[in-house]
Amino acid sequence: MQRRKFIQNLSIFSAAASLPNAAEALPANKPKYFTTAFISDIHVKPSEIAEAGMKKALQNISSLKTQPDFIINGGDSIMDALAADKEKTKTQWNLFNKIMQSENKLPVRNCIGNHDIWGWQLKEKEDIKADALYGKGWWLQQTGYAKTYYSFAHNNWSFIVLDSVQENNGGYIALLDEEQFKWLENELSITKEKFICIVSHIPIVSFCSAMFFKDMLANGDWKLSRALLHTDARKIKDLFKKYPGIKACLSGHIHLQDEVNYLGIKYFCNGAVSGNWWDGPFQDFAPAYALFDFHNDGTVQRKMIEY
């Protein structure tokens, strides 16, 4: 898609405050408890399209008749820090912060994405490993969090935010390290809220992880990368079975959308604000964010907004 046409489309879509919000789509006999907006894979960078797109997404959220209680940022806030030098990484985070401060007034809860991690794929990474910002340090400074995984409560729901991204031979692999998994076990055992929502950048269970690559292997097998789906999904699934209060898992990363109901838990993969990294739709999915309604009976409903 040509740049000018794409920007024009962004302007047209942003004017579509006429889109029905999630509350209007609910049955009259289904009381809504609270709403959150899930934005993921913004991949902002210094470019006319990316900056305009991030602004339009946040402006669209601000225009909703029923404002979300808070925003969940599913990760990959900036285009890339994995292979960017310090100056380029700083420029991207400064731009992200500038737009968030100017266009958003809602509380934001953050989840770390692979592209938010600094230096893992830099050729000169040995020279910067002593830097406090190396790896996940920059994201921790950016968010002000003590760890890359944490939990918080809202009404009678508990949200557990995980860190899916672990270093793997110069790349990354989707799993929970042992320390984090033990923390998750303990967190689930002491959670007092009635219902639980899990947030991870990389999906734990997803069909669209298999659809990311357009081609299969030569023998017809699906391509399923260790970087596209939690490699410890069975281990996590076995843990989740012990806690029927877990009702939903939210993720991004794939830039595609699906909804998988597996063993009583709804797993939502929520597309990307950037679509095809700011080059239009990605595999039939336009740039979008999600609205989630969390009900006091434990049900969760999603509406995708192509802003």
Walk me through what this model shows.
With 307 residues, this protein is α/β, with parallel strands linked by helices. It has seven helices and 13 strands. The protein has helices at residues 3-14, 22-25, 48-62, 86-103, 137-143, 178-190, 233-240; strands spanning 34-39, 70-73, 108-110, 150-154, 157-161, 165-168, 171-174, 195-199, 246-251, 257-262, 265-270, 289-294, 300-305. It has a six-stranded mixed beta sheet, with no helix packed on it. It has a five-stranded mixed beta sheet with strand order 3-2-1-12-13, with no helix packed on it. Strands 6-7 form a two-stranded antiparallel sheet. Helix 3 (48-62) links the parallel strand 1 and strand 2 (70-73). The longest helix has 18 residues, at 86-103. The protein is globular.
Blueprint of the fold:
Blueprint: H1 3-14, H2 22-25, E1 34-39, H3 48-62, E2 70-73, H4 86-103, E3 108-110, H5 137-143, E4 150-154, E5 157-161, E6 165-168, E7 171-174, H6 178-190, E8 195-199, H7 233-240, E9 246-251, E10 257-262, E11 265-270, E12 289-294, E13 300-305
Parallel strand pairs: 1-2, 2-3, 5-8, 8-9, 9-11
Antiparallel strand pairs: 1-12, 4-5, 6-7, 10-11, 12-13
